[in-house]
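Pasting as-is:
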Amino acid sequence: MSIPKEPRQLMINIMYLVLTALLALNVSAEIFNAFEMVDGGLKRSSASIDAANASLPESIRESAKKKGSLQEYADRIDPVQALSKEGTDYIADIWNTLIDRSGDNSGQVDDGDYVIVKDKRVLKGKKNYDGTTKYMVDEGKGEELIAKLKEIKQGFLSFIDTADRAEYASKIPIEIDEESWKTSVNKKASWSDFTFGHMPLGATQPIFSKFENDIKASESTVLNYLAGKVGLTDDVVLDKFRVVSAPKKSYVIKGEKYEADIFLSASSGADSKTGISISVEGARLPVDKDGNAKYTATTSSSGTKKYNAKVSVTNPVTGETKSYTQTFEYEVGERSVAISPTKMNVFYVGVDNPIEISAAGVSSNNMKVSMGGQGGGTIKKNGDGTYTVNVKQPTKKGDFATVNVSADGMNAKKEFRVKRIPNPTPKLGQNKGGSIKSGLLKASAGIYPVLEGFDFDAKCKLESFVLERAAKRQDIEVAKNTGGKFNGKAADLIRKAKPSDRYYMTNIKCKCPGDRAPRDLGQMVFRVI
């Protein structure tokens, strides 16, 4: 790129470069908020692991005392916890060093490692990436971190019996991805550069929290392994799983949204030492070998019904019982059959007449549907659950075609009138008659029947008509036309059109679907202008 010689243009170019750099550095507050949310979740997870790890050692020691040969597993507890503390202290030391190096660029009141901004604690220098790049990449702390984590993982594995070590190598959750950086589009020089290079301090916080979480989870894995070796269960044992759909409403009306939570349910089998009890409205239910209970209730009235379910789980290690409650609801309706015409309460000859049939609480596969009455109708079921009726002839006054439904002991019948398709309107272009320009008349291909306001997909066919041309001081010329398109002599008469001529289209005949004979559509009169 050439350098402009004009000072003003040179200044503008420099300003663009500065602006571009500022935009590259300006990581939005929303992104940092996302990092903070992830970090907060990891810290809460670590706190939960700490609580679980604190309750196991004493139980392991007590169980090991009952059988002297198991004491070796109790003796591993302190070294396991010491290794975990060593690892988390190491991670914390790196993080504290990075905070010190990044400094405080906010100018706000200092509060330890944070600053106060609008009553909220904000990490010092969270947008600063020089500290992370220099310390973790340039000075090699990142590569030291990889080696330390590998060393800690091997240390945890050393507390697993040799026979079980291969199995637990994949269960210790300390993992370092050393492959992704090699294929990175940014051409990173190392894992450290890929992970920490030019990363703002605030963006790296969840990374260190994740490593800390991995170390504590590894401690938990080993402690639970030791607990199993001395005869304790890992915790509440949930060994039966199934997919459950929990609908928001067990009865929905057409047009409403059906909403349901789909999740994996875990329960305790009969061979587990976990104690599970299930009750509904205070009444305890029997639990089967798969940890399931069946609730039944007699529905004596219609309307919305609710019930409260309670599940209590006893931890076999601590003896602690936790209870979980949930309110469910379902709707009880009256059994009925509904037969609904999709278009209107009449069937038309010659077209498909769609209807919908439903029976509350009965599958459509268990319904028997038939046609009766007059009209010679037939009915068939469609793939989407609706039905199509075809009828052959109109009904007389007082007669009806009937749709009959039998569904699980219920019987219903609905009556329908049967009519011919209404008469279509003959048109020449968009015109039904009246004044017409000679050019428009000559450009018209013919006349055609239109079913105006008819909701069904049906087309009528024009059979024939008589065309008469009445010109001033001339005899009337007559031509019979077959079909709707002008042809033969009728086409010649149309080409003669000139102002003041009158054209009469009479005895217009057409056939619509279901017609046995043509019907008369009357006449059309045009005056040429």
